[in-house]
Amino acid sequence: MNILTDINFDYTLRIVALGSAILGALSGALGAFAVLRKQSLIGDTISHAALPGIAVAFFFTGNKTTTILLIGAALSGWLATLFILGIVKATRIKLDSALGLVLSVFFGFGLVMLTFIQKRPDANQAGLEKFLFGQAATLLAADVQMMAILAGVAVLALMLLWKEFKLLSFDEDFGATQGFAMNRINLMLTTLLVVAIVLGLQTVGVVLMSAMIVAPAAAARQWTDKLSTMVLLSAVFGVAAGVSGSLLSSRIPKLPTGPTIVLCISTVVLFSIFVAPARGLLWRWLRRRRNRRQFRAEAVLLDLMDMARHHPNLEHPHAAAVLHTLNLDGRAVRNSLAELAERELVRPAGAGLWSLTQAGIAEAQQLERRFQAED
Amino acid sequence: MNGLNEKHKPPRDQAAIWVEDLTVAYQDKPVLWDVDLAIPKGVLMAIVGPNGAGKTTMIKAMLGLVDPVAGRVEVFGKPFREQRRLLGYVPQRTSVDWDFPTNVLDVVMMGRYGTLGWFRRPGKAEREKAMHALEKVAMDPYADRQISQLSGGQQQRVFLARALAQEAEVYLMDEPFQGVDATTERAIVDLLRELRKQGRTVVVVHHDLQTVPDYFDWVFLLNVRRIACGPVETFFTEENLRLAYGGRVAILGERKPIADDAKSL
Ligand SMILES: Nc1ncnc2c1ncn2[C@@H]1O[C@H](COP(=O)(O)OP(=O)(O)O)[C@@H](O)[C@H]1O
Ligand SMILES: [Mg+2]
Fold first, then answer.
1. Top mean-pLDDT range of A8-12, A329-333, B144-148, B238-242
2. Are A233 and A264 in the same domain?
3. Residues A356 and A211 both lie in one domain
4. Ligand 1 atom 1, closest CA
């Protein structure tokens, strides 16, 4: 008996993990374009706007099959994007305001519909609330199969339209001069994004789904300067978060899958923002510190040179104390002197005195020439 | 003055670009008002006018990037929609995000996308054309460079190369000299002259009034309405500049009073 439930459990887990992996891959890949187009909010709007579609689909069909509900979700998510594009084109309202507007109107309507449906006698079985925060355990093998097929089609479309999507994301106007119908390309990319979002609703829910669009891409951007690598990496991060999130929530009781997946991807983002080479905050900080240190050392060297000019002998020693008054920060001066000494540009002359070496004089003169040229 | 303008108007079918009654408005604010323009084939033309005069809008309208309220644009005697391939566009450098994850060669190859059409991927032929275009602006050593690592002048040259890769007949450039270094400025001027020598038509939105007589042979003064258009020596006059810039003629530069400028023409 025990073995049987265990197998059952593993089977469910496998379904959930597979579904989460698919959703992570697709939202990661398409999210990369949303992030590069500075349209991170569009994911948020589409996912929230999917809610009324789910409610209306149930209301009219009385059917709670996932497929039917998600078709409703896709239709209303897609309708929302048409509204957004239309509002931006026809009015003075800017994209971010249009996104906010459509989000609140659609989501508000969705919540009203949900409350209304709750009051119906068959409400208990509907379980529509699962689409708010997602309920991965309700994933069936058939659902995952459908997800896999749709994701496959979306990836094919992405590969086929790669050049067009790149053009749209980098320079839409130039694309139009090349003879492409850019609004059609935009509509296709947005449609793929709707598909990616709708596929994640059952697992992650409308509230957190936008994180799955933005987060993998934001993390991937930190690691690469190549579009294809970024899209691929973003998909990989999405898969990693999906799988690790479902594993974690299955090991730890009462940990909901959707939010755990989002936590996992958030960890990846934090890690990437801090330690990714070139773009990571850590490396930037280290670079800045190195630059500042070098800058201070150069300033001290030049001060020494200025003082040395008052003597016939340029190697005449001077008190570090004078440098302190010139530079205010005593510790920084000590560090700079130590560093300059290590590079054999200055040498201690005892009793807090320091003098330039021949190499130091040459270096100072070169710096002076460089600063003059920059002026 | 209008009579003079008329004299320099080429016949409609000989014009590289022919614009008639063009009116463009954003929402309800007119930005271009009833503009007529005929650009003869083979000229190097500057579009000059104060900030907000509609210079960028004019270029975009000729390229079909904004929908006019009224008017018509023809390219070599046909509606521009049929002639898109013949128009090469160099947008303002700041109109794109240079932090986009791609490299120089990739951007320049976008100039071949129109010829490639839907779905087809750029291949060896496109790569070669792009490299060739990069050579013309002395950017071929930077082909593999990330675009985020380019200086302003280098970015501008990449944009020029992208338009060159298209092998267009007419080039429309929006402030290519804006904020570039002296080397790039020189390179652009040389390129413009070479294009003219090949018989191509080049239209450039230009900000630096001092260099107009040096760099260009044709000028179009614009401020919402057409002020004047024709050869630089005849039409780049103090009076026309005053008409275009209104009370703001000080733009001509603090160093040189406007009278001197007019004389030096
Ligand atoms: N997308 C837009 N929406 C609304 N107004 C615009 C838009 N683009 C330009 N304008 C306005 O149109 C006028 C002309 O702009 P533009 O063609 O860019 O002038 P220029 O290039 O000569 O500086 C300006 O007043 C500008 O504010
Ligand atoms: Mg402009």
1. B144-148
2. yes
3. no
4. B26
Going from the C-alpha of A315 to that of each of A245, A305, A310, the distances in angstroms are 66, 9, 11
Beta bridge pairs of residue B230: B219
ipTM reported for the complex surpasses 0.85:
yes
What residue numbers bound the domain in which A322 lies?
Answer: 283-374
CA dist list (Å): A101 to A41, A106, A133: 12, 9, 22
Any idea which ligand is nearest the CA of B60?
Answer: 1
* A162–chain B Cβ distance below 8 A for any pair: yes
Identify which of A36, A164, A170 has the shortest CB distance to residue B118: A164
Same-domain check for residues A262 and A333: no
Residue nearest to atom 16 of ligand 1 (CA): B54
Same domain, A287 and A365: yes
Q: Which two tokens stand for residue B106?
A: 């990739």
Ligand 1 first shell, C-beta below 6 A: B 26, 31, 49, 51-57
A224/B102 CB distance under 8 A: no
Select from A87, A177, A228, A229 the residue whose CB has the most chain B CBs within 10 Å, as the one to mutate to test that interface: A177
Residue B257 pLDDT > 70: no
Residues in chain B closer than 8 A to A160 (CB atoms): 119
- Please tell me the distance from the alpha carbon of residue A197 to that of residue A42, in angstroms, as a whole number: 11
Range A320-324 average pLDDT: 73
State CA B146 to chain mean position distance.
26
Q: Are A141 and A267 in the same domain?
A: yes
Residue after which a domain boundary falls, among A219, A249, A277: A277
How many distinct structural domains can be found in chain A? 2
Residues A223-280: tens digit of each pLDDT: 999 999 999 999 999 999 999 999 999 888 888 999 999 999 999 999 999 988 878 8
Q: Is A285 on the interface with B (CB under 8 A)?
A: no
State whether A60 and A135 are in the same domain: yes
Where a domain ends, among A239, A261, A277?
Answer: A277
Name the more confident of A57 and A317.
Answer: A57
For the record, the structure tokens of A47 come out as 């996912």
Contacts of A225 in chain B (CB under 8 A): 101-103, 146, 148
Domain co-membership, A228 together with A323 = no
Q: Is A97 found in the same domain as A21?
A: yes
Domain with residue A148: its CATH number is: 1.10.3470.10
Asked if A217 has any chain B CB less than 8 Å from its own CB, the reply is no
- Percent of chain B exceeding pLDDT 90 equals 79
Note the ligand closest to the C-alpha atom of B93: 2
Q: How far is the CA of B59 from the centre of ligand 1 (A)?
A: 12
What CATH number is associated with residue A354? 1.10.10.10
Residue to substitute from B63, B118, B174, interface A, most A β-carbons within 10 A: B118
Taking alpha carbons only, the member of B43, B49, B28, B4 closest to residue B225 is B49
d(C-alpha A28, C-alpha A34), whole Å = 10
Structure-token pair, residue B113: 């996308």
Q: pTM score, two decimals?
A: 0.85
Report which of A332, A340, A13, A27 is spatially closest to residue A154, judged by C-alpha positions.
A27
